[in-house]
Amino acid sequence: MSTPTAPDGAPAARRAPRPHRRPKKDPARMVAFQALRAVDERDAYANLILPSLLRKAERQEGFERRDAAFATELVYGTLRLRGSYDAIIGACIDRPLSKLDPPVLDVLSLGAHQLLATRIPPHAAVSATVELARVVLGDGRAKFVNAVMRKISTQDLDTWLEQVAPPYEDDAEDHLAVRYSHPRWVVSALWDSLGVWQPQHCGRAAVTELLAADNERPAVTLVARPGRSTARELRASLPEQETEPGRWSPYAVRLVEGGEPGLVEAVRENRAGVQDEGSQLVATALAAAPLAGRDGLWLDACAGPGGKAALLAALAAERGAALVASEAQPHRAALVARALDGNPGPYAVVTADGLRPAWRPGSFDRVLVDVPCSGLGALRRRPESRWRRSAQDVAAFGPLQRGLLRSAAEAARPGGVVCYATCSPHLAETRVVVQDVMRERDDLEWIDARPLLPGLPGLGEGPDVQLWPHLHGTDAMYLALLRKKG
After folding, report:
1. CA 121 – CA 94 distance, rounded (Å)
2. Can you give the residue range of the structural domain that contains 249?
3. What is the pTM of this model?
4. How many independent structural domains does the chain possess?
5. What is the mean pLDDT of the chain?
C-alpha cells in the first residue's frame, strides 16, 4: 500500500484525531429533565417537585429567572402535550414506543416540545436536545436522539398531527385524543359530561374548545382574604406587575404575565393566597346560601391544603362566625393551619377523619365537603394527572365520596346547608354521587346554586353547577348546595 503524499510529493502528515469534547450542561434543560424523571419514576407532581429543583438550581452561579421560566415552560408544556408527542415520536422510530427507555423518551419529548411548540429555531432545538442527551444518556444514545430529532424537525406540529391522528370521521374520540393530547377515556368522559351540562353546545366544536383549554397555561390567580386585604389593595401593591381583576370572584386578582406569588408581600403575610377562581366561587356560594336561624359555626370537612378554608374562615369572621377546619392527614392539616394563620376571627384546625368525625351530629350551620377525586378538573395545572389516572380510579373514589357526603349531612343541623364540591367534571364524581346519597335519605333538598354565582354564563338548568375552563376560565369545579330539612 502506497503512503499518502502531499501535493509536493512529500509524505502527508497524519490527521490528528478530534479531541473528545465533554458535553455542556444547560441548567434549565437539566432541571426540566429531572422534573420529568421524578414525575415518571416517583409519581411526583410537577407543581410540587419543580419548585424544589428550581430553588436548588438558583443556588448555582449563572442560573437566572429567565432560566427558571424556561424550565417551567418545558416541564408543563411537555406534560400537557405528551400524548401528541408520543404519537409523533412513535412515527419517527423503528420500534414500539414502549421499547424506548423512559429517560430517552423524556429527552425526546422535551426536544419535540422545543421544536414544535416554542419559538426556538429548529437547529438550536436539535442541537440543545442532543447535548442534553450526551449529558444524561451518553454519546451512544445521543446519536439515536439526533436522528429522531432531525426527523421530527421536517414538519410542523399541525402537519404531524394530520399525519398521526386517525381521521375524525373514522374515530372521533381517538382523533381528539391524539390531536389534543388526552387519554381516550378522558375525552369520552368529558364529552359525556358536556352533553349533560351543555346539551345545546356539546358537539365537536365544544369538546375541541374544552380539550384545547386544558392545554393552555392558566393565569396565576390570587385571592384577597376579606378583613385582611381587598382585591383593589392587592392590585395597587403590584405596580410593576400587570394585573386584572377576577372575572367572577370579588376577591380575585389575576397576574397577567404569570409571576412568582411568593414575592407578593400580601401572600408572604398570609393576607392573600394563590387560589383559582373556581375554588373561590365554591366558598362564596356556600357563604351566600340562604339560611334560617343561627349562623355561628361552619365546617370545612376536607380542608387540606387550606385554600377554601382560609377564604371561608375570613368570610365567617365578617359575620362573627367560627370555622372548624378538619383534615385527615397530619401534614395536610399543618398546611391548613398555615393558611389560616392570622385569620381575624375564631377558628380551629383539627386532624380528624371525615368518615369518623370528632364532632357531634347536627353541630354546624354550614358544611363544606370538598372530596378527593380524580383531579380531571385541574388538568391545566396538573397535566400529569391525565396520564396517571384511569377510569378505574374514578370508580374507586366513589365509595369515599359518598361516605364523606353522608358524614357532612350528619354534621349539619336541621335547616343547615351542605356544599358538596369536587375538582372534576366527571359525572360519576359529581351529580351521580349527590343523587345517590339523596335517594338514600329524605332529609336533604336541593338549593339552586346558580343565583349565588351572579354573572356566570352557561350554568345550565341547575340546581347544581359545573364550571368549565373553556367557558369560565376556571378549573372544572363542581358544586351542589343542599339544605338539611327540619
Report:
1. 26
2. 220-274
3. 0.91
4. 4
5. 93
